[in-house]
Design a protein that fits this description.
The protein is an alpha/beta fold. The chain is 50% helix and 17% strand. 34% of the residues are buried.
Length: 332
């Protein structure tokens, strides 16, 4: 049995080697598709023994990923990016024994993404994504940006589709400030999403992606409408909880506190995985409803007994209020 890792790259000389080293713990069969690097990216990949293929950029990440799939000979495909690192929790032999006996067609794992300026534990948020799947000519990535293999797998296998949990995590560095700024990621992503919107029309997935991109740019107003369409019109999609949290946070940042609390209450009834996050966001919003920082502090002082969560929510709310004062007076 053979496993091929597929990586698409462009100007990734600072990140690629660490990614490849993490992949080499399970396979040396690596296909690297380069979409126009002008740095040492391809030299690094070739020096590591990877198969390097050139692909003319078409404003379509799925097209590049599918080109890699077409040149992959493994029974299984690991899809990973240069800004990601595979952290396997079992040995290589145990992994291959699992792949040799499983009746699953794909494996998903937890993606641990760093957000902000530092690569620290308190800047992490997590998501799940299919990263390993059987090599099948009828299974291909879809969407220009935030591409996914999931839809194709469901179409190919239907009710027989089995997705298991891979005993591994993937560390993702691509949301760190310095990387986003270097690549102008948000502008690029929004442009590609708008292209796909023009081609295919509105869909919950495109709305979700556009909403997340605008909120990442802190353009809370532009994020509202697409996120509201997902939250109110697509209950049950796998990303509903994340979309709902993003929408609630937009309401908080825009000072629409009643809607923020209401959407948190709805999520606390329907969403299980993000309960702690919604509970904290609701608490922060409740503190934000006070008319000033002084009244907030007075109210907090009245109750001498607070849980750790109460303290944390108060501190976050107080910090938000202080930041707004600085922004209003152009002191940031």
């Amino acid at each position: 049995m053979k496993l091929t890792a597929c990586v698409i790259v462009r100007n990734e000389q600072e990140l690629l080697l660490e990614c490849l080293e993490s992949v080499f713990q399970i396979t040396r069969d690596v296909v690297v598709v380069d979409t126009g690097s002008v740095d040492r990216t391809t030299d690094i990949a070739k020096s590591c023994g990877c198969t390097v293929l050139d692909f003319k950029w078409q404003d379509d990440f799925s097209a590049a990923r599918n080109y890699a799939l077409e040149h992959s000979s493994g029974d299984w495909i690991l899809s990973i990016d240069a800004d990601e690192r595979l952290q396997l929790q079992i040995s290589r032999d145990e992994l291959f024994a699992l792949l040799s006996t499983t009746d699953s067609q794909a494996f998903e794992t937890t993606i641990l993404s760093y957000v902000g300026s530092n690569r620290t534990a308190d800047s992490l948020f997590w998501d799940k994504r299919i990263v390993l799947f059987r090599n099948d000519s009828k299974v291909r990535f879809q969407h220009r940006i935030h591409e996914s293999i999931s839809e194709s797998l469901h179409k190919r296998y239907g009710a027989n589709l089995k997705i298991n949990l891979l005993p591994a995590t993937v560390e993702h560095l691509g949301y760190l400030d310095q990387i986003i700024e270097r690549k102008s990621k948000h502008k690029r992503n929004i442009r590609l999403l708008e292209l796909e919107l023009g081609e295919k029309g509105e869909s919950p997935w495109i709305d979700y992606c556009i909403g997340i991109e605008w909120s990442s740019c802190e353009n809370w107003k532009k994020a509202l409408q697409p996120l509201e369409r997902v939250v109110h019109g697509a209950i049950g999609v796998p990303y509903w909880g994340l979309a709902t949290y993003a929408l609630a946070y937009c309401y908080l940042r825009l000072g629409i506190y009643t809607k923020c609390i209401a959407i948190c209450d709805t999520a606390l009834r329907l969403e299980s995985e993000l309960r702690n996050q919604f509970s904290l966001l609701k608490s922060v919003t409740n503190w934000q409803t006070h008319t000033s920082m002084s009244t907030m502090f007075v109210e907090f002082s009245r109750n001498v007994v607070h849980s750790p969560d109460d303290y944390f929510a108060f501190i976050l709310a107080y910090q938000l209020s202080a930041n707004k004062i600085f922004e209003d007076f152009n002191l940031t």
